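Entry type: protein chain
Record version: 2
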Amino acid sequence: MIVLFRPILAAALLALASSVSLAQTAPAPSEGETDKSGGARLAVCRADLAKLCPDAKGGKRRACLKDNTAKLSPECAAAYADVETKAKAMREACAEDVKTYCKGKNGVAKCLRTNETKLSPACSTAVTARFGKE
């Protein structure tokens, strides 16, 4: 029964997360702790990662969170949902830009960030929402 309520809880936490910036309230990750797939937003998941997948590095950390969604703390679940929502929005908004600038390349996110000045307005907005400005 608790499994049925997990998506509802995640949605409620996502709504709460949109009004409270998790990236600002989370402690700054130490060097090497952020990854390009979630960055500082997933810093609130440190304890969850240490417990659920202590050996995961880089992009494998986000995959581990996905595999263990039902076991995540509420804060981590909200941060993870936020990252996933922004990633999906970016994939949808940037589909044509990926075909134009990143066709056949590994590292689509890096390609989009490298070509940010050439991207369509919708894609550029989605990339900024996903990764922020550097």
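Comment: DSSP finds eight helices and no strands in the chain.
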